[in-house]
Amino acid sequence: MFIWTLTNLLSFYEDQELEKLAKEHVDHVLNDFWNSEYGINNENLLHDYTRIPGHEAIMYTGHYLETLWMVYHEALRTKDVEVLNTVEKRMKHLIEMTWDYVFEGMGTEDFYVFQTENNCPGPDFDIKVMWSHTELLIATFSIYEHTGEKWAKEWYERTRKFFVRTIANTESGIWRQAVDRFGDDKERPEIGIYRKGNFHQPRYLMMNLLAIERMKKNGVKTDKN
Question: CATH number, domain at 152?
Fold first, then answer.
């Protein structure tokens, strides 16, 4: 969120110290939080950006997904091609490694590289949260807008199909906060199934509508082969 705030601020306000700060935190995300040994992003680090013992093989998928598209937009602002390419590759890899290929949807919470006493290795498919899927729809559409990559379009359409069938299919206009692997309401400790989200949905709607407007205005050619 710090990166996203700076991206928006620096889009209309010039400040070298803030530019330096934005670059520093992009570097932290791409090089410190990123765990190249396991190909995941660690959610938490110690204050000196070193690994927390016992947490090296754990990733919180939804937050990493959200972070990636924010870094992507910062790289668009600075025209940093290397960062753009890195984010695109990691985004695709993240989706492919956490998708439920049987029942559809993304395992959006803790991802364990190794089996633990209470967790199987890989993503937890028994909880698929609404907000993370809106972040996936923003992420894939952002890449599609700026690259025309076919894989980004395919994952956007696949995610949206799952979203409409499960999370948005309430006949009331109020989206489900989370569903289980079968697409039914997911009961979570201290979070009622009727809790109303009020942020991620409008952001997804506004950002992707703006992207469509830009694509129309610029005559962007899509479906890159």
Answer: 1.50.10.10
